[in-house]
Each structure stands twice: as structure tokens, then as C-alpha cells.
Amino acid sequence: AATIDWAAVRADFPLLQRKVHGKPLVYFDSANTSQKPATVIEAVDDFYRRHNANVSRAVHQLGSEATEAYEGARGRLARFINARPDDLVLTSGTTFAINLVAYSWALPRLKAGDAILLTRMEHHANIVPWQLVAERTGARIDVVDLLPDGSLDIDMLHAKMTGAVKLLAVGHVSNVLGTVNPVADICREARRRGITTVVDGSQALPHRPVDVAAIGCDFYALTGHKMCAPTGTGALWARREHLEAMPPFIGGGEMIKEVRLDGGTVFNDPPRKFEAGTPNIAGFVGMGAAVDYLSALDMHNVEAREQELLAHLVEEFAKIEGLRIFGTAPGKAAVVSFAIEGVHSHDLATLLDLEGMAVRSGQHCAHPLLQWLGVSATCRASLAFYNTHDEIEAFIAALRKVRTLLA
Ligand code: PMP
After folding, report:
1. pLDDT exceeds 80 at position 1
2. Would residue 194 be called left, alpha or beta, if left means φ above 0 and alpha means ψ between -120 and 50 degrees?
3. 102 touches 236 (CB < 8 A)
4. Can you say whether the dihedral through the CA atoms of 98, 101, 107, 110 is positive or negative?
């Protein structure tokens, strides 16, 4: 791997310089949302200062600049995941992307007797849309459980891929356990059985190289705000045949070719058929800058850096008596959920905050997973490439101090 000056990379993130409660900020909540490099912030600022106009409508100069910037972001994001720009529907995030599959693909197709297969580690965004579809179609939901280390029970998965299963929804990387699921193998097995696959890539794209063609899924959902881009950006990648066949989910301007009140409305070609209304143009300009930023670092380097930080954190955690880590699957991502015996996670996170340390506590939008873990809440330290070994040392020191206060 190339040698990267990680201190200089960190300095690209203005917010990381600030103090919280008088202490230097240690931001270990990147799985919740990432911080943004100056180039992304400046791209958004520059768009509003110099290029702001609506897209795909006006013939004037600003209109074409805005359209070029917006479509440029689509192109960069497509290249980033090895896809064609026209197969990428730009959305407000993963939640919208998965709901688009639920309402446009699943709702018209599923019926009583069909099954939707999920895993125990899904985020609510990859559970609730399927429950809504199940309720309306009469399809049932089946769930694949986990092994004790937090990896997916692949034998159970294969056993549950019966003829009734029409759709499999699986996360690429768990936002609680850090487990990286073997999505290419899973999608190959599903495809062999005629099962359509939806992969939730929210926690994968910010941390590792992703190639949707190599994964071989039918749908891949992603969100921008966890990968250095502004909030309210994301995308659904889909196989062309699905985009052609799916009816639109939201109607409005720009998603049509011709509108007739006598019922002859003609929809636009995909992906525009699914992009009604004025999109988050400035946000996607920022998304384009975020993709440029991550591409320049190279996701292989990002992954290696985060694995190194993870190893350090886990090594230090092992020395803390009574600390339990949830999720120890081999090759896991740098997301570490933990609890300390006799200490409430929320109290822990609150006292850590007073030390300038940002971690998330609670159920992490994954109630079924927390039920399986048998705990009402965990603390979660989630790392990114812009974190440092010094921050890990400071975090461990703060954790020891806070724990003494709570014990
Ligand atoms: N799936 C996973 C695994 C996530 O971690 C998140 C964000 N917490 C989502 C889906 C939802 O993403 P968004 O809120 O950006 O739509």
C-alpha cells in the first residue's frame, strides 16, 4: 500500500480540530455519520455561490452548469462502485433506496405464500420496509440467525433459501457488530435459486472497495453521509432489467416524458423515472467531491488504515476487566459495540461526552439484533481513517476514568 500522511489527511477535516466540553474532540461515531473534508464543504459552498440553478430544465448557462455538476456526481459515484451511471438512481439515502425497491419492485410482485428472507443483523431500514410489504401482500418474513461471533449462519441461510423465497435482503457490513457478510457468495447462491437480492451497503462503501458487478446482487443501496458526503444523498444501484420493469414509486416533474390528462402520461427512462422533483443538487455536488476525496486516498488504503486502528482498539479493550465486545467475526470492520459489566451504556456515553469523546449508545436502529444479544443497549465506538492511535489511547484512558466514577 502507498504511504499516506494520515496526519495531513486528518487535517483535511475542519470539525476534528474543535473542542467539546473544553477537551479535544475524539469522534468515534462515524458509523452514525462521518465528518466531511474541506473539499466537500467547499464544493457545496462554491455551488451555491457560483453555479446554483435547477437541473435538467433551464437552457441558461447556470442551468447547464448545475446539470453538469449533478450528473458529474452520478458519473463519479457510478465509477466508484464499478457501475454505469444510468443504472444509478440518486436518492436521499439508503432508507429511500430500500423503500424504492420495496414499493416499486416487491409490492407489485409478492403475494401470499411468498417469503422475504432477512438476517438478524439488519438495520431497521432493511427490516421495516419489508414488513410493510409483507403486510400488504400477505408474504411472510423469515430470518437467518447468527453464530456466536456475530457472523451470519451460512448453513441456515442456505437451508432457508426455499422455493417460496422471492427476495433476500442482507447488509454488506453490520452497523452494530462490524461483521462483513460474504455478499458475493450469498448473491451467487441466491441467483442460482432465482432469489432477488438487495444489499444494504451503508456501512461498506465508506470503508472498503465496493464493486457491485463483482458482488452480483440485484440491488445495492448506499448512503452519502457516512462516506464524507452531505446528508440527504444516496443511491440505489439496480440491474437494468429491474429498472426497466419497475413502475415509478413517486410521481412528479422530471420523471416523465409527456403528461396527458387523458391518461397517456409517458414516463422518462430510468434512472430519471425514479427521480421526481428537484433533487438535492448541492448535496450531490458534495457527494462528487467526497468520491474524488476517497478515490484519491484509494479505498484499499482506507481499509488497511481502519483495520490497523481497529486492532489497536480491540487490543486495549481486552485489557479492561468486565468489558464485553459484541461481534468478533474474523475480518470485521472498525465498528466496536461494547458494554462494561455493571455500567449502563447510556451513563457511559454521557460521561465520555464530558471528556470530549463521541460514541453512540442505545440500540443502533437494530432492535432484533439487540434482542438476540440479550442486552437493552450497547456503547458503540466506530472508527474512520481520520482517527488516530493517540485518540484510541486517550479514549481508553477516559474509559478507565469514567468507569471508576460509575462503579
Ligand atoms: N442501513 C445501515 C446498516 C445503516 O447503518 C444505516 C444508517 N444508520 C442505514 C441503513 C440508513 O441510512 P440512512 O439513514 O442514511 O438512510
Report:
1. no
2. left
3. no
4. negative
Q: Which atom of ligand 1 is nearest to the CA of 31?
A: 5
- Cα–Cα distance for residue pair 132/331, rounded to 1 Å: 33
Which pairs from 308-311 meet CB under 8 Å and 24+ separation? 309/334, 309/383, 309/385, 309/387, 309/388, 309/389, 309/392, 310/178, 310/334, 310/336, 310/383
Q: What are phi and psi of 125, to 5 degrees?
A: -65, -20
**Other Cβ atoms within 10 Å of 106 Cβ, number:** 25
Distance, CA of 13 to CA of 228 (rounded, Å): 10
pLDDT in tens, 335-385: 999 999 999 999 999 999 999 999 999 999 999 999 999 999 999 999 999
Q: Is the CB of 94 under 6 A from ligand 1?
A: yes
Cβ-contact 261, 280 below 8 angstroms: no
Tens digit of each residue's pLDDT (9 = 90 or more) over 69-91: 999 999 999 999 999 999 999 99
Q: Could you give the residue numbers annotated as active site?
A: 365
Report the 10 Å Cβ neighbour count for 300.
12
Q: What are phi and psi of 361, to 5 degrees?
A: -130, 150
Kind of pairing between the strands at 140-144 and 88-91: unpaired
Which of 365, 369, 382 has most ligand 1 atoms within 8 Å of its beta carbon, as the pocket-test mutant?
A: 365
**3 state SS of 115:** strand
Contact 197 CB / ligand 1 (< 6 Å): no
Q: pTM for this one? A: 0.97
State the complex-level ipTM. 0.97
Q: What is the rounded average pLDDT for all residues in the chain?
A: 96
